[in-house]
Amino acid sequence: MKLSATLLASVARSQWTPPEPEPYSHILSTGTEFIGAKNHRGTIEFKGVPYAQAPTGELRWKPPVPVEEYSEASYDFMNYGYRCMNYGWTPDMPNADLTGEDCLNVNVHTMAEYLQPGAEKKPIMAYIHGGGWNTGSNQAAFHNLVKAGVVEINIGYRLGPYGFLYDETQDDFDHKGNFGLLDQRAALAWIQKFGGEFGGDVNNVILDGCSAGSAAGWWHLTSEGSWPYFHKAITNGVGLNYAFGGHDLSIATGLTQATLDAAGCADVDCLRSMPAEELNPHFRNAKRVDGAFHPTKLALQPGWGPVIDGGFLSASLVDNVRDGTIRPNTPISFNYAEHDAWSMTDGGFNAAIKNIPAFAPHTNAIKDLQAAGFKVPSDFTDLYFKEVFGEDVFNTYISPELGCPNSASGETVECKEQFFRWIQGQTWVCNSRYAFSGAPSTDTNIGPIYPMEFGWRTCEEVDGVKTKTCHCGESGYVNSLRSANPNMPEDEQALIEWTSEYWVNFFNTGTFPSTVGSMLSIQDLPNINTVNYINPSGNLEHPETNVAVCDVLNAMVEEFGADDVFGGAHWFYEHGPMGPQPCDDVDCGDNKVCVNNDDGVTTTCICEDGFIEVGDACVDDPCVPSPCHEKATCTSTSSSEFTCECKPGYSGDGYSCITDSNVKLTLSSNGATFIGELTSDDIAFFKGIPYAADFTERWTPSEARDANGYEVKEHDFTVYGPMCMTKNSKSTQDNFDQFDEQCLNVNVMTKPEWLTDGTKHPILIYIHGGGFNSGSNRSKFTNLVNEQGIMVVSVNYRLGPYGFFYDTKTPDVDGPRANFGLLDQREAMKWTQTFGAEFGGDIDQVTVSGCSAGSDATWWHLTEELSWPYFNRAITNGVGLNAAYGSHDIEIASGQAQYVIDNSICAGEPDEEVIDCLRGLDNHDELNELFRDATDNVYHPIKLALEPGWGPVIDGDFKSESLMDSVMNGNVKPNCPISFNFARDDAWGFTNGGFRSCTGRMPAFADSEEAIRDLQREGFEIPSDYTDIYFKEVYGPELFSSNIESQFGCPNNADGSANECKEPFHNYVMGTTWTCNSQWALAGAPVTDPNIGPIYPMEFSWPTCVKNDLDENTRTCHCSENGYIIGSKPIADYMSDDEKFMQQKMRDYFGQFMRDGTFPYDPEFGEMKDVKSLNGEFNHINMGIEHYRSYPDTCDALFSLASEIGAVNVFGNAYWYYEHGSRE
């Protein structure tokens, strides 16, 4: 469709912004009016409130001058003030006018109720932003935390050279640098004076931050001048490091002198007269001058940052904390990520290569190895250690644990893991433990200090799975930035819920609850290496961590001292034989670097990285950046010419390189060639094959490629295609570039011999889960292919608002208005019919399957006739025949679409143009925020589980009735074997989130939220009386008493104390959304109509989650059965014989089902029966197959209720009372 010229111009001029905030007037106790903003999330913001005078002119590089009063009658604080100037700023950069030196302001976030006279005062979070002291701003907002009862005040402070230039000539005040720290202290003093005006308790101020913001917290904790202004501290993402201070004083003076030299100034007063646009180039150049950087520091070298100046601090953080110079009786939550240094390891190694003379002869060799894929290549980390500490120290202490030489045959190996462990130990972990092992371990007036290592995986995706926990990964959980929703994995929901509970409690009391385990202080932990550890499953444990590397560093400290070991690895440069070097007095000229020769006397000048030698000059290297394929080596032949050559193991012209470990498939239809990867498991793996047109316009149906749909050439399908864009995708994500709207691709796993031997094998089409809003097709099915002989096609489809936006506006649409994600899946099925046989698949033996939303989608296809020609049988896992999508939800879908329209630049466009207008918006950050806001503002108020925000709807086109009604009435693919499976406790991981959502949305709970949260902090996940209130509000008091109370009621005890209600509430959610609703549907036509099925219902009850005190699983959570059915769960040695037997039998049983639609019978395991022979019972798998009813008491109660008010009102997300009752 074509946009009008007027509309194109409109889209080009503007992008969507959040709804305009409403002005909010607040009168201070002095009578002064502050006009803030009530935002669309419900919090009140006062932005850009100055706490000190502008540090410009004569006040540049002087301590801040506080604002003592606000003398005008009214102030407008609806908009942010300036972000603080940084040395990277230029006047022509985007949004340059938002940055300035007049930036000493705070942003206050509170709630209207906290501002009312007589309201209880709330803890104050004094948040200091990160950014390595040189970047960042105070414009983050912690809405969840504010709503949980904390007033947030976010502090702006001077950055980089504007905040930390060190002027040793100053003699008129105590502090010659550290102005950014003094700004923070002034802001804390302002909070003491004015924080109460915003509902805050000035006697309960908590320092908080991440990265440099938390390093600042430690500086204030150990600087007595800051102590009167706060009471607790939370630090995230840093250790007690020497990154700022110690030897860095000489770096600081070197930076100042380099700046003066570059600017042609004799003193700092001269610099004060220069505007920022003139100063910043000099600041940038100063960082490149020898003596203005630490040559051996591997991480957290900011350039400009705090220094130990004898004023703010007189000793390092490590020494101060170890000696007990720390604010007394101050609760401290000390947190870091398990792999905090991981993302800085590559950069640290590359900085060492650049800064240490010993690497100069090796730079090209290292560059080649890095181009070959070695991020930190072997031998060179050993060279670093030998150069810094000396060979004897390396051999004695470092090599046994952290050495990383080439292999015995001389081959290069990857050393990132070893080098990371050194940096993590030296700068985050072991240095801090050394400090804590002093006074904090014995002095009862220190702390309590709670050390926490965060191991929940947050970064470094491998095959779609996050494998590391990177820098500041814990901060979003500690500070309640993460929001749980019922479509997340249950362990992630639980983690978000309990971490928010724990740290909100810390904000209030300085202690932690014990809901999921005890958070222990240093003095309560058994030894200094034991930490509070949040493991990758989201559980709280108390293991020893980093013991080996800390043993190495502690032994070195014992001999050489902490300053030399933890102080930037400085020992050998200070004490070793390196001394003066021949290159010290050599100037090689432009773009050249001096190298000391091995004789220790002569030197050689070589070109710097990024330059090549042409004659006597060094000119730009045409291979930087490389124009070649990522798997090719670029070689410069002149100043403008180069060659590209594929690396060993790859073939091609250098611009396109294909792995030699590949397989090729030539299509019989038109001769196009597909190149796939031959995996180590002997799988032919074709990745990212587009099954639809190269471009599918937003909110239009996709169309499968036909037999001639691929150009006759070689197509490289050895790397994954893009994942589908989601509403939660943000450009700040490390992997954002892997998301795209043009994402309609499949991955095919088959056997290499099947491509040529003419045999045909059953096909599994796998539709991934993720609540229709997340996920991808990057799962692997190695065991299914190798053991069961099944070819697998894994499908990407459009997600969330990109796949399920409901177009209610466009008149006379020639095609569907919604459900584009489901239509994509159907087109992938069509593609499989066209191309499946090319990969050795039998297109007459196709099983469609998935888990969670993938299985819900499978049911949509089972009940939609236009999908029937493309598959022969189905396996559904992790869902019931629910009404989660459809029915009343069409009102939600249309409401969300209308919200997007109303709050975008497309509002007011004619109906026939408004959707085209939305299609023209291409800023995904802004668009996704709008989509997220739509789900926050338009929702089903009483739905307890599986509310995706954006998902399929019964639109009269794809479907005209609910899944439950379709199956009950017999509108399901005839003569189609269906294996219908769910977990015994499938709803367990959704129950807490569903309860929390409803208590936050339903009017009946408006006055109870705080009381509920208090009970949850005491350990009640779902406290009593409140589930009864839910049922009464939804169904009315009479139906509650007559039909619900006996089975699901959960009142307080006779003495008024609370009960835990999660079990009965889970049973209700399980019954309405998974099992009883499905039993109701299966009792209709599937039992009586011989042309339906066979349908095999199975409840899986092998425990897989929720550990007890004995570390035993006690529940069987969402989609647990999926890994056993498709064989993705490995059969491991640690498993019991019973589990190994059960797992192998499930592989064999479901493998046969995928091959022929039947189940085998092994008397040792049991018989899988179809619904017609079960007489209302289900197949149940634990150690074998048994037959009995699923949730009989729960279902009897719900069936009784359904017979009275109708099944759709019970199983349609408990909607009856909102539709028919009185909502007083």
From TrEMBL:
Top-level taxon of origin: Eukaryota
SUPFAM superfamilies to which the protein is assigned, alphabetical: alpha/beta-Hydrolases, Growth factor receptor domain
PROSITE patterns given in the database record: CARBOXYLESTERASE_B_1 (PS00122), EGF_2 (PS01186), EGF_3 (PS50026)
Pfam families according to UniProt: COesterase, EGF_3
S-adenosyl-L-methionine keyword on record: no
Alphabetized UniProt keyword annotations: Disulfide bond, EGF-like domain, Hydrolase
Alphabetical list of Gene3D superfamilies matching this protein: alpha/beta hydrolase, Laminin
Chain ranges of the EGF-like domain: 619-658
Alphabetized PANTHER family for the sequence: CARBOXYLESTERASE
Family: Belongs to the type-B carboxylesterase/lipase family.
Protein name: Oidioi.mRNA.OKI2018_I69.chr2.g4850.t1.cds
Organism for this UniProt entry: Oikopleura dioica (Tunicate)
